[in-house]
Design goal:
868 residues; alpha/beta; MutS, DNA mismatch repair protein, domain I; Nucleotidyltransferase, domain 5; Rossmann fold; six-stranded mixed β-sheet; 27 strands; 17% strand
């Protein structure tokens, strides 16, 4: 009975809302009511928190009471991005008919479903980053993955083991990931909780359905032409992506013209630890500067997005790398051409996203003008490139499409100052449509026409203050002050009486009003129709514009490399057939930019090959710069294989196919793993995947466990790398000086150290890599520099002396002995207590001692005197 009562009380509006909400249960539904978008119930509670808007109640006190929160419809672009960035899927429900045209409830329906991974909204998107929707499918042995940026039309597919897919997810950073419901737990277990998920029904993830979906979209018989037909798991993931687009009301998608395979064997392999350790494009330290921050000198959004891709996927093909180097060298040597190209690129808008908006029918007149201006800016680039004597630059010039017909049609159809919204009017140029021009004449000549009537009627009636105005209630009217009321002609019809005046209408004014208002409505309809026709026609130019965007992005990246080389004195690396890596005076690209002005970066040489110097064992104190030398070596190789010049005096290198790093401690406490466990996991990944062209960088292996455990593990790992048939090039930084002895046993291990200069009571870090092992670690000096209390430093020095004397025994015994000798002196009158106390006092730096520390020291001496 209660249920029936509730049904009776449900208003027609809420009934309509509930029907639509049932279709989108997991989305936040923005329900258009008049001039507002409203949210109800749970949606309202979530939206009010995220947006900071007031939460009220509808039907307060009644059985149908529900939470309510809303905002004006024109604020959609302000509020929508906040909801999406909070990870919500947002269904936009609009009025599908004019409320004036219906006496019953207005028809409503969802016109768009915006999710973190599917959005064309500029406020949601970042110009310099792709907004990828990913789909992951778990096969029996391998995993398929697909990435789609609906705002640019880029569609990528790959498949591989867990580690490879994890690395790709980390590189591409999708905003949303689709997974079959059946694999929900598996995905979370392997890839963690950091992604926005959406779970699909299992039937979507079937091979036949995926192939049918993809071939229907691309209008091809098979997927062979795209080179992806053998990627079964990848195809299933890609089919799920297209299915999801149709589910989110994104049915206009002809800008997705291609699907590309991410060819694993074409790019340098970097595991996820390496990408994280080298801080390529994000860092766990909020204020850290990444490599991307330093090298990104691109001037267009397309270039910036492509540079990120190049950084994530450095090349292995020597010819392709050298091709990029040649273009960078050409631009670096021809500063005028570089400057001209840069000036033109600055004038180019985000063509990839503009043409995608055209395909989706979501483009504004102003954006079409931006596209035309961008295509105009390409023309000088094309002519400069064609005149170039550098083959790759010339090729770019040949492939750039001048799109003459597209540019001229936009030029002749739209006003150069076209508005942001078509409803603002005056988007279509004069001379395009004769009826539109006539209607505009009527609309625009209204002022003169009304003034003429005013003058004529004033003279005819003798009413000097007669005035013609307009309001929304009864349109155009004549206002006459009460002093002239007696002069009003009989044929005027009185409409309104005011305190000081009367308002009248005439047949002539009514006729004119119909004509004027009809003209404005017709003008709007004509402009919309003409603009839609233009947009549909422009959609035939999707591929040439996308190709232009891609070529401009490439040129932008290469110009960015040239600018980087000019600004920071980078040189062109020499790529050879062999395996050796020789860096002369290499520098760390990020650290050198962080140094105070006037402080030079200490450059270092590194030489590695597979015959004489396969493993360099680097010792040296903490803070001396061991990690910087390791990282800069990897970054120089990485930059070189991206196609950039590098921070060094000279670099000769064979192509590297894998870069592995194990740098610094990164506890994964949330996953229940200690520093040492993380370290061993990362090291295991290296030892199980290395190749003859690998570059391995190991920093402080074994420091997460006890000293002798650590030394044993580090020794065994170094020996494994030395004896491995691939003989991978390795830099091994350690503070275990015992490892210096390995060079006597293993011929391809060479000792180096980061030199320091020892002064009377401090140490100067020279940050220079020199041949030979280092004697000791200066850890106590570093402790002192860090501000450890003098008392602790003195005690540490005393223990260190004892340990060094007793190097052959175990470390703990040395500490025990140090305590024992202090105690024995009470009874040993041959070595009086006064002598012991004298030593204690002489080692004190009185200037550095705080009053509390002085008290503690006195207390310790007192304890020495009173203890047995």
């Amino acid at each position: 009975m209660a249920v029936k009562e509730k049904e009776v009380k449900e208003t027609p509006l809420m009934k309509q809302y509930n029907e639509i909400k049932r279709k989108y249960p997991d989305a936040c539904l923005l329900f258009r009511v008049g001039d507002f978008y409203e949210t109800f119930g749970e949606d309202a509670i979530r939206a009010s928190k995220i947006l900071g808007i007031v939460l009220t109640k509808r039907g307060a006190g009644s059985e149908t009471e529900t939470a309510l929160a809303g905002f004006p419809h024109h604020s959609l672009n302000t509020y929508l991005p906040k909801l999406v960035k909070a990870g919500l899927r947002v269904a936009i429900c609009d009025q599908l008919e004019d409320p004036k045209m219906t006496k019953t409830i207005v028809k409503r329906g969802v016109t768009e479903l915006v999710t973190p991974g599917v959005s064309m909204n500029d406020e949601v998107l970042h110009a310099k980053s792709n907004n990828f929707l990913a789909s992951v499918y778990f096969g029996k042995k391998i995993i398929g993955v697909s990435f789609l940026d609906v705002s640019t039309g880029e569609f990528l597919v790959a498949q591989g083991n867990e580690e490879y897919i994890d690395k790709l997810l980390q590189n591409f950073g999708p905003s949303e990931v689709l997974v079959a419901k059946i694999h929900k737990g598996q995905f979370r277990e392997i890839f963690g909780e950091d992604y926005n998920h959406f779970y699909l029904e299992d039937w979507v993830c079937k091979e036949d359905y995926a192939i049918e979906t993809l071939t229907n979209h691309f209008q091809t018989a098979t997927l062979k032409g795209f080179g992806v037909d053998e990627l079964t798991e990848g195809i299933i993931a890609s089919g799920a992506v297209l299915y999801y687009l149709s589910e989110t009301q994104h049915n206009k998608r002809q800008h997705i013209t291609n699907i590309q395979r991410i060819a694993e064997d074409a790019y340098v392999w970097m595991d996820r630890f390496t990408v994280r350790n080298l801080e390529l494009y994000h860092s766990f330290n909020p204020n850290a500067v990444t490599l991307l921050d330093v090298i990104d000198k691109t001037l267009s959004p397309m270039g910036s997005r492509m540079l990120k891709r190049w950084l994530a996927l450095p090349l292995k093909d020597r010819e392709k790398i050298q091709d990029r180097h040649e273009v960078v060298g050409y631009l670096k040597e021809n500063a005028e051409i570089l400057l001209s190209i840069q000036n033109q690129i600055k004038k180019i808008s985000d063509m990839e996203r503009l043409i995608s908006k055209i395909a989706a029918g979501k483009v504004t007149p102003r954006e079409v003008i931006y596209l035309k201006d961008s295509l105009n800016a390409i023309l000088p680039i094309k002519s400069m490139a064609l005149q170039s004597n550098q083959s790759s630059v010339k090729k770019i010039g040949e492939n750039l499409d001048s799109c003459d017909l597209l540019r001229s049609r936009i030029e002749s159809t739209l006003n150069q100052e076209a508005p942001v919204a078509i409803a603002k009017g005056n988007a279509i140029a004069s001379g395009v449509h004769s009826e539109l021009d006539e209607l505009r004449l009527i609309s625009n000549s209204g002022k003169e026409f009304l003034e003429a009537i005013e003058v004529r009627e004033s003279e005819r009636t003798g009413i000097s203050s007669l005035k013609i105005s307009f309001n929304n209630v009864f349109g155009y009217y004549i206002e006459v002050r009460n002093t002239h009321k007696d002069k009003v002609p009989q044929e005027w019809i009185r409409k309104q009486t005011l305190v000081n005046a009367e308002r009248y209408i005439t047949e002539e004014l009514k006729e004119y009003e119909t004509k004027i208002l009809g003209a404005e409505e017709k003008i709007y309809q004509l402009e919309v129709a003409l603009f839609e026709e233009l947009v549909q026609w422009m959609a035939t130019y999707i591929q040439p514009v996308q190709r232009n965007a891609n070529l401009v992005a490439q040129l932008d990246c290469l110009a960015s490399f040239a600018q980087l080389a000019i600004d920071n004195q980078y040189i062109c690396p020499e790529l050879e057939e062999g395996f050796a890596l020789e860096i002369k005076n290499g520098r760390h690209p990020v650290i050198e930019k962080q140094l105070p002005i006037g402080v030079p970066y200490i450059a270092n040489d590194v030489f590695l090959d597979r015959e004489t110097q396969q493993i360099i064992m680097i010792t040296g104190p903490n803070m001396s710069g061991k990690s910087a030398i390791l990282r800069q070596t990897a970054l120089i190789v990485l930059l070189a294989q991206m196609g950039s010049f590098v921070p060094a005096e000279r670099v000769k290198m064979g192509v590297v196919d894998k870069i592995f790093t194990r740098v610094g401690a990164s506890d994964n406490i949330s996953m229940g793993e200690s520093t040492f466990m993380v370290e061993m996991n990362e090291t295991a990944s290296i030892l199980n995947n290395l190749s003859e062209r690998s570059l391995i960088l190991l920093d402080e292996i074994g420091r997460g466990t006890s000293t002798y455990d650590g030394i044993s593990i580090a020794w065994a790992i170094a020996e494994f790398l030395h004896e491995h048939p691939s003989t991978p090039k390795t830099l091994f930084a350690t503070h275990y000086h015992e490892l210096n002895e390995m060079t006597d046993l293993l011929p391809r291990i060479q000792n180096y150290n980061v030199s320091v200069k020892e002064l009377k009571d401090t140490v100067l870090f020279l940050r220079k890599l020199v041949k030979g092992g280092s004697a000791h670690s200066f850890g106590i000096h570093v402790a002192k520099m860090a501000g450890i209390p003098q008392l602790v430093v003195s005690k540490a020095q005393a223990i260190l002396k004892k340990l060094e004397k007793n190097h052959s025994g175990n470390a703990l015994q040395g500490v025990k002995d140090e305590k024992a000798t202090v105690q024995m002196s009470f009874f040993n009158l041959d070595d009086p207590l006064l002598e012991e106390i004298r030593d204690e006092i002489l080692t004190l730096d009185l200037n550095a001692l705080t009053p509390i520390e002085a008290m503690m020291k006195l207390n310790e001496i007192k304890r020495m005197l009173t203890k047995k």
